[in-house]
Specification:
With about 425 residues, this protein is an all-alpha fold. It is built from 21 helices and two strands.
């Protein structure tokens, strides 16, 4: 089935559809990057080890492994527009599940809520990403995805700040201290009203999408659309390798965005819950550069190459950096009234700059030449988000059970092979058209 914008809307301006899609990317970013604050928060409240805390991210992203292909089938059945509404509705249900989880303080219930949230996110991602690729020429797709990425990551800047203001504002001075049961109960209960409000907001938006003038992406009938996953991957190596590239990319993106708070907590940083915002600010700057430079100055391939090399260099600087050094803060933050943070923390945030262009660059390179199999390819690429489940998990294992700051710092070495594979895909992998 070849994906195209429906004929009865092809002459209509794409402004309204892109505005709706932009709002969806913002919601995706807000919900996704809440994990960066939720992970260290639950680590403190439930007294979790680094490995246990990584399961919070694992349960969110592992949903992709089981639901990406079914999501593609659902979208072919109900359409892209209804698929988006269903995805948001599922996320609303997940937000409501956080209320009994907070009341009971059951770790397993938090993980289940995260699993449902990841399921809804997967369905929404599978539906919304092809819109951005198809509403315009393929050679500028990375720039359009970059625009959506700015909103997605800008939501990632806002989400930790709101989490801190609404949930942690009354709990200053508790970092590094042993919590009493009364303090644990109070911190856990502070989740209830914010997540109730979140559920209400995204529920209203789901109804808005359902009855919006969003045009449908129609797909012409073709037997190729029913091809097996094995056949599709066998005939399109650039897609298969693209799935792996997105897998390792999301692994490093989530490590950089969602473990930085836990690492900050181990270093005794008071405002650990806002650290994800630092990574997201760097990603927003990277996306803006992508919009300005791609494809006018550099190609999607070259941008991907530079990102991979930068990721390798910054990873090594993190692992071998000095946690007692504040040189970067003194130069970049203190002159503007910012707080003093260890260099290693800011280097993790700088990974956001290296990561920004990877997602928008890989999508068009991986979908190139698929034509009638675009929806199938989209579902397979969305499976790459499962990397977000395993990246933090490997980081948690590499950090050891003690969870000291030094151990967690060394755990970031797991990102190096990920960036090396992205470099391979940028230089050669996306060009491979046959396995022979």
């Amino acid at each position: 089935m070849e994906a195209t914008v429906s004929n009865n809307t092809s002459s209509r301006s794409n402004v309204i559809p892109m505005a709706i899609v932009a709002a969806l990317f913002f919601i995706l970013g807000f919900v996704t990057w809440l994990n960066g604050s939720l992970m260290p928060y639950l680590k403190q409240v439930l007294q979790l080890s680094p490995f246990q805390a990584s399961l919070i991210l694992f349960s969110f992203y592992i949903a992709v492994t089981f639901t990406a292909i079914p999501s593609s089938a659902v979208i072919r059945k109900v359409g892209y527009k209804n698929g988006m509404a269903l995805g948001i509705g599922t996320m609303m249900l997940a937000a409501l599940l956080f209320i009994p989880a907070a009341k009971t303080q059951m770790f397993g219930l938090f993980l289940f809520a995260q699993l449902i949230m990841g399921t809804g996110q997967t369905l929404l991602q599978t539906a919304v990403n092809p819109y951005v690729v198809k509403l315009g020429p393929e050679e500028s797709a990375a720039a359009r995805v970059s625009v959506m990425g700015i909103l997605n990551k800008f939501a990632g800047v806002i989400a930790p700040v709101m989490f801190t203001a609404l949930i942690l504002s009354d709990f200053k001075g508790l970092v590094g201290s042993e919590l009493t049961q009364a303090e644990i109960d109070q911190m856990a209960n502070s989740l209830v009203y914010p997540y109730l409000g979140l559920a209400f907001f995204i529920g209203i938006f789901a109804l808005g999408v359902k009855f919006s003038p969003l045009p449908e992406i129609t797909e012409s009938d073709s037997d190729d659309a029913n091809a097996s996953v094995k056949t599709v991957l066998s005939n399109h190596p650039n897609l298969a390798l693209g799935v792996v590239a997105l897998f390792v990319y999301v692994a490093v993106e989530v490590i950089a965005g969602d473990t930085i708070g836990s690492f900050a907590l181990s270093l005794g940083v008071e405002n650990y819950s806002v650290m994800t915002s630092y990574t997201m600010v760097c990603m927003v700057l990277g996306y803006i550069l992508g919009i300005l430079l791609i494809p006018r100055v550099i190609s999607q391939q070259m941008a991907l190459t530079v990102s991979a090399i930068l990721g390798c260099l910054v990873t090594l600087a993190i692992v071998f950096g000095d946690n007692s050094s504040y040189v970067l803060s003194s130069a970049l933050l203190q002159p503007f009234g910012g707080v003093m943070l260890p260099d290693t923390l800011l280097l993790i945030a700088f990974l956001g700059f290296a990561n920004a262009i990877v997602w928008p660059a890989v999508w068009p390179l991986a979908l190139s030449g698929l034509g009638k199999l675009t929806s199938v390819g989209s579902g397979l690429l969305i499976m790459g988000i499962a990397g977000g489940a395993f990246g933090p998990l490997f980081w948690g294992l590499a950090s050891g059970s003690a969870g000291t700051a030094e151990a967690q710092q060394g755990g970031y070495i797991v990102m190096l092979p990920c960036y090396l594979f992205i470099l391979f895909y940028a230089l050669k992998g996306h060009k491979i058209k046959s396995w022979k």
